[in-house]
């Protein structure tokens, strides 16, 4: 049977062809006026009839989107729900309302006045995938969407792993000429966490918190989201527990805590999700945390995976209140990671901040391949934390380094005294995770200094001078410390 679109095209072509044939038929030498009018009338009636038949066929194949109604859990054990008919997509927002936190490049620092640099690690990769999506779609990303540390940390550089689990990570450094100005140097600081085989992961209590609001009714949102989580399901084991909570105008429990090896039930619950209504993320989070507490596994992985376009517009929408709730639950042992979807109204700022407050990772899913990378290939790093509150502190030798600038990590900077303060929160490292940071250095005697005089509070980046022959690598101060 031809597809509905093919039926509509065929009917329209038939109607058009009937009109054209009626208009192009060779007339008799002296046709009566009444006969000519009758012919035109018949042709128009045939065209209208064909159009009506086309509309009737289209209406017969169109299924209205039903409101969200969780399927009874008992029925899920027998057979998955059938695939729904594709819905007509809602109009995309006429105006791009994507939201990103504003940030500025880190300033250049004079080493003799500020020799110590301290920052929290960041294992997020959402910026890279989001920027990739923009470039693929043919438009220039806004500056605030480009977080350099997330672009760096998207890739695996093969940093050496620790020799044993007694020390959870290993620090590596390298020095090389800066590609944009060979008179300056780039110091790379790499951290590698110890890896864990998937079979050795502790039992996991996962809550899949799914945004099913009307803004998710696009192919690159809820349909992609369901296929993304479907990639995770086969990795789950009998000792794992999975819950599914969906939220739109209100929140609903789709799947109560269920053994991870009941793959059919989990997949069927995912497939039953529909998009409609407003976005009450606050209520969804509260229900997700309730499910996480109900199925809490002592000594296991207890984590919420929030999948959303970040557009919270109902319930508590104040970012500060949401972040406080997430931070309180983190201290109670329940972590939160975020997976971003969609474009046009994507709230990157909200998704990133929630993940930071929940000691989780923020990733952006633009393709099924990216979903496999985050949820399957990097499953251990996404789910299992091996070191909490990891901070990096680098002290430069003023006799060797005249100036330095940390590339990226603008919203991860810490004060020197925060390094040893356990009350100051920092990022976590997952199993097998790599973290990479770059410092741009100006060595003493290079002639490439930018801070000629004045107070040493720093100055924003300004590229000056023609390229010069590359300098040989030089020792750039003391070994970085990490805790």
TrEMBL record:
Segments of skewed composition (Low complexity): 33-49
Record keyword Transcription present: no
Protein name (Swiss-Prot/TrEMBL): Ca-activated chloride channel family protein
InterPro entries (alphabetical): CLCR, Uncharacterised_YfbK_N, VWF_A, vWFA_dom_sf, YfbK_C
Ranges of compositional bias, category Pro residues: 81-92
Keywords (A to Z) from UniProt: Signal
Signal sequence range: 1-30
Record region (Disordered): 27-111, 449-483
Basic and acidic residues biased stretches: 50-61, 95-111
Organism: Pseudoxanthomonas taiwanensis J19
Domain VWFA positions: 205-383
Domain of life (superkingdom): Bacteria
